[in-house]
Predict the 3D structure of the following.
Amino acid sequence: AQSVSQHNHHVILSEAASLELGCNYSYGGTVNLFWYVQYPGQHLQLLLKYFSGDPLVKGIKGFEAEFIKSKFSFNLRKPSVQWSDTAEYFCAVNGKGTYKYIFGTGTRLKVLA
Amino acid sequence: GAGVSQSPRYKVAKRGQDVALRCDPISGHVSLFWYQQALGQGPEFLTYFQNEAQLDKSGLPSDRFFAERPEGSVSTLKIQRTQQEDSAVYLCASSFNGGNTEAFFGQGTRLTVV
């Protein structure tokens, strides 16, 4: 079955701490991978995406993610979080050439000032 | 417009009432998607349009749900005889052309059925 697992449902960090949010997927075939962020009261916004090429992808606001094909993982990282990173983060996958996104259940990040 | 626009932002419906949710995609985007997001969950696929053609409606939970995009631009998701389990946020997204292009999401319509 096609699925995305985000193991951390709630994460609380202090400012300047490092962040890593886990994402594992199950999908038969080659995939595109995405991280979306939803700030309080706002719409889902794309943080970064992987289609092909360098498996280490850099996104906006200092976020990066690494695609490890052998582990079916696409973990999100940021070396030093800020209070403004408080949001909900969703990992998503779709099959190459297909349109249907499959989302994880999300991780709520709270950064303490 | 600059982004995907959805209306209304909030809708309270009495059980059994019909509702219609509107989505204005980004101009020129061929692909349009509807997703349902229940509390504490990630978005779940409902249906997909390419221009005016509804290519996939496999995610619609019942025949009470109906979506259309008659002119290949604005789309409407209609729910007939609403039930409490329909309470969720309904998200619309559009992309230039599905597949390997990024989807842009609207703010969603929060539907509460009482």
